[in-house]
Specification:
The complex is a heterodimer of chains A (101) and B (215). Chain A contains six helices and no strands. By secondary structure, chain A is mostly helical. The model of chain A has no long low-confidence stretch (mean pLDDT 86). Chain A is rod-shaped and about 90 Å long. Chain B has 215 residues and is mainly α. Chain B folds into two domains: 84 residues, Rna Polymerase Sigma Factor, Chain: A (Orthogonal Bundle); 107 residues, Winged helix-like DNA-binding domain superfamily/Winged helix DNA-binding domain (Arc Repressor Mutant, subunit A, Orthogonal Bundle). Classes of the chains: A mainly alpha (101), B mainly alpha (215). At the A-B interface, helix 2, helix 4 and helix 6 of A face helix 2, helix 3, helix 6, helix 7 and helix 9 of B.
């Protein structure tokens, strides 16, 4: 029993050198959404994800929410369809005219 | 109306501006570009009065700095460039009044879900880690889902929420968000990470984790 757990500990230790822990792995997954990871980062993350289903779930979920966030913008459609009100339009025109006189 | 005192008259009079190849008559600017500039400002300022002010300031500055252009699209880009600066000025001023604090960059709501010490330090405490979400895509056509999502987004700390909205919802380029909020690229990534962590957790608790959530 002891010998097995020592082997396991040693293996985990070795892997730990190559791949990040969960806290770092989720940070990397987030970063990967915004920039290119370095080769080392990517490799280490891949390795971690093979072994860690929680971080795999995290990555899927965050990616899903990110694509859904665009839908919140649909919600803000009114922002995107905004136009100057007729009053504002007139105000601006008058302002421009007087500024040039 | 004294030309010496009025600094806005540093550019050629209307007739000359019209004669300049490619540059449209400022009288036309409101018609040609007003709505576009207003929309652009609205996406970033989210307030009609502020957006209008920004557009007004843009036109005024444009009058002062009349340039030569070939083509209307170049003129529009030029105006947008001025508008961007005006919007930055607004954020800079707002930022001075309530600056980002270290707290916003470094506090970490999820930190107590990781093993604190020992061999498995910084691994998820398994019971507290991410759960499986069954078929999340199916939620997208439920109005209550969007409501929940919106509520979760609104719960974000103010600055983190601003970063999230500008970058993830409005799709404004990272570099521009940095310029608007006067933060570094690194700051941006830290705050996006925090926003995503918090949102994921909030959605898990309030939507996907619920027993009566739809499949």
């Amino acid at each position: 029993m002891n010998r097995t757990s020592n082997i396991v500990k040693s293996l985990v230790g070795r892997l730990g050198d190559l791949s990040p822990r969960c806290k770092e792995a989720i940070r990397l997954q987030s970063a990967a959404l915004d920039r290119n990871l370095t080769l080392t980062e990517r490799f280490g993350l891949r390795l971690h994800l093979v072994l860690c289903r929680w971080c795999r779930a995290y990555g899927r979920q965050v990616a899903f929410l990110r694509s859904a966030a665009g839908g919140l913008a649909q919600d803000n459609r009114h922002l995107q369809q905004q136009a100057l009100s007729p009053e504002a339009r007139e105000r601006l025109k008058r302002m421009l005219q007087s500024a040039r006189e | 109306m004294d030309a010496d005192e009025d600094s806005t008259i540093s550019q050629p009079p209307a007739e000359d501006v019209k004669a300049t190849p490619g540059l449209s008559d400022p009288d036309q600017w409101v018609e040609l570009h007003g709505d576009y500039l207003f929309r652009y400002a609205m996406m970033r300022l989210r307030d009609a009065a502020k957006a209008e002010d920004a557009v007004q300031d843009t036109f005024l500055a444009a009058l002062k700095g009349g340039k030569n252009f070939a083509g209307r699209s170049a003129e529009k880009s030029w105006l947008v460039g001025i508008l961007k600066n005006k919007i930055c000025d607004y954020y800079r001023k707002a930022g001075r009044e309530t600056p980002f604090t270290d707290l916003e960059f470094y506090s970490d709501e999820e930190s107590d879900r990781f093993v604190p010490v020992g061999l498995f330090k910084d691994s998820w405490i398994h019971e507290l880690g991410p759960q499986e979400w069954t078929n999340p895509g199916a939620s997208l056509d439920r109005e209550i889902f969007w409501q929940t999502f919106r509520d979760c987004a609104n719960k974000l700390p103010k600055k983190v929420g601003a970063v999230f909205t500008l970058r993830e919802v409005d799709g404004i380029e990272g570099r521009e968000v940095c310029a608007l909020l006067n933060i570094s690229e690194n700051n941006l990534w830290v705050m996006l990470h925090r926003a995503r962590m918090a949102l994921r957790r909030c959605m898990e608790v309030n939507w996907f984790g619920k027993k009566d959530a739809p499949e």
